[in-house]
Design goal:
Layout lengths: L1 E9 L10 H10 L4 E7 L8 E5 L2 E11 L11 E4 L12 H10 L3 E4 L27 E6 H8 L3 H9 L10 H12 L5 E8 L2 E5 L2 E5 L2 H5 L2 E7 L7 H13 L3 E5 L9 E5 L4 E2 L4 E2 L5 E17 L2 E16 L3 E11 L2 E8 L2 E3 L5
Parallel strand pairs: 1-2, 1-8, 2-4, 6-7, 7-8, 15-20
Antiparallel strand pairs: 1-11, 3-4, 4-5, 5-6, 9-10, 11-12, 12-19, 13-14, 13-16, 16-17, 16-18, 18-19, 18-20
């Protein structure tokens, strides 16, 4: 398998971002991101998907959209639509119909920022997900960079501090989102996780003072998705996009916070007598299996089984355990960075369909 770094949930001048597709691509190239998925609000920008190149490096820029019902008060239920290749905003008022249409058109639907706070100082509302009586969505945005800023910037001094020192923002996914993900997985639903930047590169200016708050470069150095694909990206937009969309749709990925230390090279597998299961796979346990975790640097590793921590290792780069129980297994890791433990890696699950005594 090949590893591809993908940053998704980005906004440009086509909605409420400040960057062009070219400037977004250049930032991604500088930060070593292979694929960027732009998701402007309620618009699928067409005719712009392309490889952008600079200094011998390249980044593939693809487009999806962030769909939400603009007439709803209060605003809730934002959905990241990826790979549908068709405008979906007209279905925004009915989330179930939206998911059905996305699936019918071969796309993926991820619930955007399922849990977040408002930010009244900037008139930013709480746009959490509230319609949980739905089915058929691909997954959820486990960790959202801008939502996390809203979580911790509750006073003017804190807001200014994080605006100037954004590297201190990230702590990890919202606890309620992690809890909901485990709840859905424990119900037998195959719900996959992605990490989102929610990048806007906001321009702030007052008098002679001007600053870009959370530029694209920062977002692309932080919360990314690491995809496992069959083949290297070769420069063919259509063929490479197909691999990216497949990996996201089937959970062949993990969320990595790459700012403290690159998460590239992380692996999580389940080996049995006749199969090696990767992220997102379903494995049949006949006489048990072996879970193997490897991290590219030392961290605190936890294997979660059916919502509870099953095994853990402190300050380690590997964890190997034997398993016999059915259900799902996923990995979460924390790392020391800027004076505290921070979330680092959150894998998609491996599912087990049978157990052995």
């Amino acid at each position: 398998m090949k590893e591809v770094i993908c940053n998704l949930h980005n906004h440009t001048i086509y909605s409420d971002g400040t960057g062009t597709f070219a400037s977004v691509a250049q930032a991604a190239i500088r930060q070593g991101v292979n694929v960027v998925i732009v998701t402007d609000h309620n618009i699928l920008v067409k005719g712009v998907e392309s490889y952008f190149e600079s200094a011998g490096k390249r980044t593939l820029v693809l487009t999806g959209e962030e769909v939400h019902d603009q007439d709803r008060r209060p605003q809730k239920n934002h959905t990241l639509v990826i790979g549908a290749r068709k405008e979906m905003a007209r279905f925004a008022s009915n989330p179930q119909e939206l998911f059905d249409q996305v699936n019918a058109n071969g796309g993926s639907a991820f619930l955007a920022h399922p849990n977040e706070y408002d930010l009244p100082m900037f008139h930013e509302p709480d746009i959490s997900w509230v319609s949980w009586d739905v089915d058929g969505f691909t997954g959820m945005e486990l960790w959202n960079g801008f939502s996390e800023f809203k979580t911790y910037a509750r006073t003017i001094p804190r807001l200014l501090f994080y605006a100037f020192f954004p590297e201190f923002i990230a702590h990890g996914p919202h606890p309620a989102t992690l809890k909901k993900w485990d709840e859905l997985l424990s119900m037998g639903k195959k719900v996959f996780a992605v990490g989102g930047s929610d990048a806007h590169a906001l321009d702030f200016h007052k008098g002679f003072f001007r600053k870009t708050v959370f530029p694209y470069d920062f977002h692309f150095s932080a919360i990314n998705n690491h995809l496992l694909v069959d083949n290297d990206l070769v420069g063919d937009v259509e063929a490479d996009a197909k691999q990216v969309y497949y990996a996201l749709k089937h959970g062949h990925s993990f969320v990595g916070y790459d700012l403290p230390c690159s998460t590239k090279g992380f692996s999580f597998t389940l080996e049995t007598d006749d199969q090696v299961g990767q992220l997102g796979d379903t494995v049949q346990l006949k006489r048990g299996g072996t879970l193997r975790v490897h991290t590219p640097a030392k961290a605190d590793i936890e294997i979660v089984h059916n919502g509870k921590v099953f095994k853990s290792a402190k300050d380690s780069s590997a964890l190997v355990v034997t398993v016999t129980e059915r259900g799902y297994y996923r990995v979460q890791c924390t790392i020391d960075f800027l004076g505290k433990k921070r979330g680092w890696i959150y894998s998609n699950p491996i599912f087990c369909t049978a157990s052995s005594a």
